[in-house]
Design a protein that fits this description.
heterotrimer; A: alpha+beta; 2 domains; four-stranded antiparallel β-sheet; 4 strands; elongated; C: alpha/beta; Rossmann fold; 9 helices; about 30% helix; nucleotide-binding (chain C); ATP-binding (chain C); transport (chain C)
Chain lengths: ~325, ~140, ~300
Amino acid sequence: MIWLTWRQHRRQALFTLVGLVALAALMIPTGLMMRASYADKGLAECLRVLNAAQPDPERARLCNRALNQFADRFDSMSLIGVLFLVLPLIVGLFWGAPLVAREVEQGTHRFAWTQGVGRRQWALVKFGFVAVVAVIVAVVYGLGMSWWATPLTGAAQQSRFDVIFFDMQGIAPIGYTLFAIALGVCAGVHWPRMMPAMAVTLGGFVGLRILLTVVARPHYLPPETRTIPIQGTIGEPGGALGDWILEKGIRNAGGRMVLSDAQAACSGAAGPAGGKCPPIVEFGEGAYNWQLYQPADRFWLFQGIESGIFVALAAVLLYLALRGIRRVA
Amino acid sequence: MIEFVLDARSKVNTYVQLIQQVKQALRVGLLVPGDQLPKVRDVAQSLAINPNTVLKAYRELEIEGLVEGRPGVGTFVRRTLGGPPLADQAELREDLVAWLRRARTAGLTPEDVIALVETTLRATLAAEAARTQPAASAG
Amino acid sequence: MDIALETEQLGKRYGRRWALQDCSFRLPAGRIVGLVGPNGAGKSTLLHLAVGLLQPDAGEVRIFGRSPYDNPATLPDIGFVAQDTPLYRDFTAAELVQLGGRMNVRWDAALARERLAQLGIPPKLPVGRLSGGQRAQVALALALAKRPRLLLLDEPVASLDPLARREFLQSLMGSVTDSGTTVLLSSHLLADLERTCDHLVVLHSSRVRLAGAVDDLVDAHRQLVGPRHVGETIAGVGTVVRARHTERQSTLLARIDGVVDPEWTVHDVTLEDVILAYLADGETTVARTDWEVPA
């Protein structure tokens, strides 16, 4: 049975391997380049400088320049990252959906299921095989991407929580890939034709990913709030810490939100750098910056939760596929 | 060994065709006692017919005492079929030729002759059968 | 007698339409059974129920006494060649033989290789590149290598040219003689069935019209020609299967149960006559209701 699965899918497996090698050939050199440049420019040190409570203005200026240079050179790289967002979907479309659908479309299930092996065992081996392949692929590229993207997110002073960056690295891709595969398989069992199965996979995957990202992910854990007095010249205090800022605004002394989606700093002329600003007329005395955020150190926890949700969904879908396969004829 | 052929358009049952061919071969001397009939498998395969049909024909021939099955070996001819060899039938043949001439002068076409022979043959056989087994004739 | 396949009130429904209904018959082991019927009569449905690909919606089907659905224990007894002989087209014949060995408890690889060699099938070519006849032969060889007690073939020769069809039936008959396997073969090529089958199941409009040993069926039916007959009973005639009338004369195909009224001329029938009579039966009345035309 394992031999059949391997023999049947070895070409697909080969294509997948070639694809991964090609990606590695692209990612490893660029990754090394970015890391070298990151170290050269001393950006790690820079970030510490910029995030200090009272940044030295001269060093901050130099650092900002270095960061901008780095960003100019490598920002387009994050486009490559987008490719990795669709990778789980591709795996689901081309590994998951055809697994049963193709078999039924070509009628070969009638051959396979009337040999000595019952169809349940057939399905278990097949599903298991693609799941294992999917996990291996996902682990390799998920952790690979974490390594690759570190300098990029760091330099851009971006949170790893940001939508694209969160989704393409760490262990979340494992969940996505498994889910996409399971969705494809399940769709193939219930709509045993290639095109409908692929369409359902595409729609289901994209829909659920967007839904969970937008609606559910910010609430995996209760967010924390933080207030920052309006001082200094840094536009957005706390931003470089890697926290995931869900909401921000300026509240007046009474705690009422006076301007949402904004943070205030002293205007350069108005006050001494690093000192307390004179009250800003618009907001009144005692106004402060307010943030609702998920702390940066929750990154792996969130990765785990996100991954866990999709793995659980994948398990449910595979169970449904196993049940449904009894009714395929 | 003989080879069977099938007339697909014939209304005669397949197994009857096989029996007729064996008997014909016995009659003309193609098969003599001790000869082996084609193996059931070979007949079934070459004619693409049901092996049970072949078995049925061979069984019928066995019941008639013409052949005998030797388990694991095959089916063999036991005795040749009835009548004297064709050479000994010259006298009958002469009679028939004379009769045919008379039929032609009486205006019978070949088709008429065949019809007459067939109906007469059938009627005679039926009459004979009725004489030997009066009870069965009702069925 | 050993019963290879038995159905009891068997039914299968797709949505609201019954593909097979009220289907009851028994196939004695050792027979070669023809399954006849027009397209859409339920032949494939019946075969798929018999090999456990489908779950019955009503009644029961049993293979050597066991229900085949969701029951892998029955699989070794069954050899199945589905319609259009689906095989993994990128596998070579040799690989398919190897595959069978890995997916079956009982597997006679030597037999399969022997057969394929005899037929001159290239072992190293993907079966997708073989001719239809060769592919059918590969499928048959694989089914036979399971050494099944019951071999089910769904329209195995329908898409083959006459020569390939003949060769297929030849090798089927040859190997069945050796193995004594019970065969259930669906086809609408009556001439082939007449040669190869000794038992018959006729399906029409999802119901069994006729089932039994060929010799018995042919013996039981006669064609009768006589004076115009309008439904009154005729001595010696059981059921009239099909009747055609002119103003003065009626031609009937009927099941007889005694000595027929001497007013009628009695002719023997062939298997094909019987099958056609049963298949034609009822067709026009159904069509007339469907078209809302008075009969």
